[in-house]
TrEMBL record:
SUPFAM superfamilies: FAD/NAD(P)-binding domain. Gene3D superfamilies: FAD/NAD(P)-binding domain. Pfam families: FAD_binding_3. InterPro entries: FAD-bd (IPR002938), FAD-dep_Monooxygenase_BioMet (IPR050493), FAD/NAD-bd_sf (IPR036188). This is FAD-dependent oxidoreductase.
Length: 407
């Protein structure tokens, strides 16, 4: 394979995969995406927080406006006790002079924007390609899929999520994802009668679980629940639970909390989706030969941080910049790791800290939490203390600093 004409095999078509493919194309590197699912579904009825730092990267691709149009701006997050006592307010996004606020968006809508742009740019997407093996040579990598087909490229980017196959192929001893002790459940109603919570996400620290909700100006209502469960569920166990059963469980969890929560759960008109929270704090090996990890495959962030998608997007632009500015793969991958490791791991730690506030169920723990959170918000969740997260910018046109490339 011609060393100067590089080709990337991107495994995984979530958030990191398409963003990486788009930036690689801009860098003059051919990319093809391989997805295990049989077809595009613009999957997911759940929603996510796309933070201002992630939106800034999408602006480099000309996608920020389209993504913002399909979501709702959420510059404020207000917290309450289960009985309706105000606990504090947290700013959600960069300073006004730095960038746009974070947004709330259905995962399926974000995925649709990315898929449409990838297709418009002529980047190939291969569905039904479950990776089973990788073989790396001097100047190429060959991926083998479960259907018996093979593909050859200069390098492989593992964008295959928290349970990454590529992570184990790069390092069989890689630390496994850590179950955080929380299960997340989410619901959605396209037309609800609840008053809009303009520009605000509301969080309720209930007596048994944590509840978040937002109602857009058009009447779309989103909610999610984080509830503690000590025992890690088996693979696929949570997926087997039907919406009616989730609804019954959630109504029981919040039976002693503000009635609005139960009303919203009952008003849900979409499939209720549940999944366990995992994180990965650190990986000793980010790359090997022609293989490199990106996004959740590398450093899964608890959803409590509201940074999972944005960290994956940041990874994608930085990796593409390093490959653009350095022909040698090992040098480019090493530069990518040097630029991202400290920030990625710091955000994972932040997510763990936030998750820990949601696991209190003992009445004494709940009481202590509710009296301490107002002070915690003032000291540790003010705009200045969170600026390092939201105001982080990666500019595509700036060259990678020479010191990060080992020169």
């Amino acid at each position: 394979m011609n060393r100067s004409a590089r080709k990337a095999l991107i495994i995984g078509f979530g958030v990191a995969g398409p963003v990486l493919a788009l930036f690689l194309q801009r860098a003059g590197i051919e990319a093809e995406i391989y997805e295990a699912r049989a077809a595009s579904t613009d999957y997911g009825g759940s929603f996510l927080n796309l933070a201002s730092n992630g939106l800034h990267v999408l602006k480099e691709l000309g996608l920020e406006h389209e993504v913002v149009q399909r979501g709702s701006p959420i510059p404020r997050m207000v917290s309450w006790s289960g009985k309706g006592k105000p606990l504090g307010e947290v700013h959600n996004g960069a300073r006004i002079e730095v960038g746009a606020p974070s947004i709330n968006i259905l995962r399926s809508r974000l995925h649709q924007v990315l898929r449409e742009e990838v297709e418009r740019k002529g980047i190939k997407i291969h569905y039904g390609k479950k990776l089973v093996d990788l073989k790396s040579g001097a100047q190429s990598v060959v991926a083998t899929f479960a259907d018996g087909t093979r593909s050859e490229g200069t390098f492989v980017a593992g964008c295959d999520g928290v349970h990454s196959r590529i992570r184990r192929l790069i390092n069989p001893d890689a630390p496994a994802p850590r179950y955080t002790g929380l299960i997340s459940i989410g619901g959605f109603a396209q037309h609800s009668s609840f008053p809009p919570t303009k520009n605000t996400m509301h969080f309720v620290f209930g007596s048994r679980a944590f509840f978040g909700y937002h109602v857009s100006t058009s009447g779309e209502m989103y909610w999610f629940v984080n509830y503690p469960r000590k025992a890690e569920p088996g693979r696929g166990e949570v997926d087997m639970i039907e919406s009616d059963e989730w609804q019954t469980r959630m109504l029981d969890l919040f039976r002693d909390d503000m009635p609005l929560i139960s009303d919203m759960i009952r008003a849900t008109d979409s499939k209720i989706i549940g999944y366990p929270f995992y994180d990965i704090h650190t990986q000793p090996i980010w790359y090997r030969e022609g293989m490199v990890l990106v996004g959740d495959a590398l450093h899964a962030v608890s959803a409590s941080a509201g940074q999972g998608a944005s960290m994956a997007i940041e990874d994608a632009i930085v990796l593409a910049k390093c490959l653009r500015d350095q022909q040698d793969l090992t040098t480019a991958f090493a530069s990518y790791e040097r630029q991202r490791r400290a920030r990625d791991e710091r955000v994972v730690r932040y997510g763990r800290q936030v998750s820990n506030t949601k696991v209190a169920t003992n009445p004494v723990q709940v009481w202590l939490r509710d009296i301490s959170l107002p002070l915690v918000f003032k000291l540790f969740a003010n705009p200045a203390s969170l600026d390092w997260i939201y105001s982080h910018h990666v500019a595509w046109n700036e060259p990678v600093a020479s010191e990060t490339m080992g020169t």
